[in-house]
Amino acid sequence: MDHALLLCKILKKNIKIIVSSPNLEEQTLKKIYLECFKSPQEAVKRALDISGKSKPRVLFFPQPQRTLPVLA
Q: pLDDT tens digits for 49-59?
């Protein structure tokens, strides 16, 4: 499956994708509707904050290119 189509299917389900990667430019990620953070800790904090639950469940994918196709 094409990566762009996969991303569209995931975003259509209103799944928020939060990224922390030193190799990707923040502006590029924002253009494709991803939230970017400088550190993994900041990314996890954001995920916990947007969940709005007292005991949130957050998924952490160290290599999302291998696992995100399952969500689509």
A: 988 888 887 77
d(CA 27, CA 21): 12
Beta-bridge mates of residue 18: 35
- In single-letter form, the type of residue at position 17 comes to I
DSSP 18: E
d(CA 37, CA 43): 6
Cα angle: 32, vertex 34, 39; to 5 degrees: 140
Element (H, E) at 23: none
- pTM for this predicted structure: 0.69
Distance CA 62, CA 60 (A): 6
